[in-house]
Design brief:
By secondary structure, this protein is mainly α. The protein contains 7 helices and 2 strands, in the order H-H-H-E-H-H-E-H-H. It has a two-stranded parallel sheet.
Length: 123
């Protein structure tokens, strides 16, 4: 980290030496589950919005900010798995689905087992 508390630019000489493990998103995009963690206000939602606006021919990309409002697994399933767009994708689209779920941290305060429910339902 630099003096400002942020990661040194991984493309600078110092950044490459200090953070040789840092890779661009495209290098890890193929992974089945990625979680972006950070303090409130660091720009996680901004990054999710940026990723959602990029076009990928091999996948359907959806940014969902429904977690901040979910407090039960019934509501989550209704808002996600029972959504018309999800059913249509599942039945007709042969591309994989890339879900960007924002506000997981806010949801966990009211719904502590959200990660277990997501894992079970998205399996």
């Amino acid at each position: 980290m630099g003096g400002d508390g942020f990661l040194c630019d991984p493309e600078s000489d110092f950044g490459r030496a200090a953070n040789s493990h840092v890779v661009p998103f495209e290098a890890i995009r193929h992974m089945r589950c990625l979680v972006l963690l950070g303090e409130p206000g660091m720009g996680k939602s901004f990054v999710a919005n940026e990723l959602a606006t990029q076009a990928y021919p091999d996948c359907e990309v959806r940014l969902l900010d429904l977690l901040r409002h979910c407090g039960t697994d019934t509501l989550l399933i209704k808002e996600l798995l029972d959504a018309a767009w999800f059913k249509e994708w599942k039945e007709t689209d042969d591309r994989h689905l890339e879900l960007l779920l924002d506000s997981l941290d806010e949801c966990r305060a009211r719904f502590p087992i959200i990660t277990a429910v997501l894992g079970r339902e998205l399996k």
